Each structure stands twice: as C-alpha cells, then as structure tokens.
Amino acid sequence: MPASIFVQISDFTSCFFLGFVVGVVFDSFFFKRILKRRTKELLFFSSSILSTAVLIAGLMFINFYTLKWYTFLAIASGIYVYENTISPLYKGFLKKVNKVLSFNKR
User: Fold this and answer.
1) Dihedrals phi, psi of 48, to nearest 5 degrees
2) Residue 77: partners with Cβ closer than 8 Å, 6 or more residues away
3) Measured between alpha carbons, how far is 101 from 106 in angstroms, rounded to an integer?
4) DSSP reduced 3-state for 59
5) DSSP code, position 30
6) What φ, ψ does residue 19 adopt, rounded to 5°?
7) Phi, then psi, of 105 in degrees rounded to 5
C-alpha cells in the first residue's frame, strides 16, 4: 500500500531541513580563508565525513533509509535554498567571529 501523502510531505520537509543542515556543516568548516593547503584538505575531508554522517543519521530517523526520488530532490533543494538565502549571512557572522578570535591571539 503506498504511503499517505502526509507521510510523503513530512519526509520531504524533513529531508529539506536535512539539506539545510548539510549546508551549515560545509560553511562551518570553511569560514577561515587563510589556511595552508593541507589544512584546507583536512577540513574538507572532515566536513565531508561529518555531512555524510549527518545524512545517514537523518535518513535513518526520517524514513528508515527508504530512498525515493523526492528524498534526493528535498536534500538538494534544501542545500540550494540555504546557499542562496542564509549562507551569506552565516558566512558574514563567521568572518566576524574569526576577526574577534584572531584579534585576541595577537
């Protein structure tokens, strides 16, 4: 028996916010611009692992790993909406935090 439309809408909404969280994870790891190449590679690797863990845990709690076409659509649209709305504000906030932290080190 196919899932109810309300269950599908709930799964879509949850996966949309899961995509939002993945965007926050990537931005959180890349807020420092002056890094050595190896440090950037290490941050990329660790953020990829963390975002994958978030996706796996989220999919387990949302719909028990049932992957449907709207799951991918929801995650991709969540990342897209985050990158085009909240991301510039969040990156600005992280840059200000970085300036305060680097000011205290000197």
Assistant:
1) -65, -45
2) 16, 19
3) 9
4) helix
5) T
6) -65, -35
7) -75, -25
Find, among 88, 81, 91, 29, the residue nearest to 54 by Cα.
Answer: 29
Helices (H), the chain: 5-29, 37-63, 69-85, 87-105
Cβ atoms of 35 and 102 within 8 Å: the answer is no
Distance CA 67, CA 35 (A): 37
Amino acid at 104: N
pTM for this predicted structure: 0.69
Distance (Å, whole) CA 91 – CA 95: 6
Radius of gyration of the chain, Cα coordinates, nearest whole angstrom = 17
What is the length of the chain? 106
pLDDT in tens, 34-75: 455 556 667 777 777 777 787 777 777 776 766 777 788 888
Distance CA 30, CA 95 (A): 10
Q: How far is CA 79 from CA 12, 46, 75, in A?
A: 13, 18, 6
- Amino acid at the residue 53: A
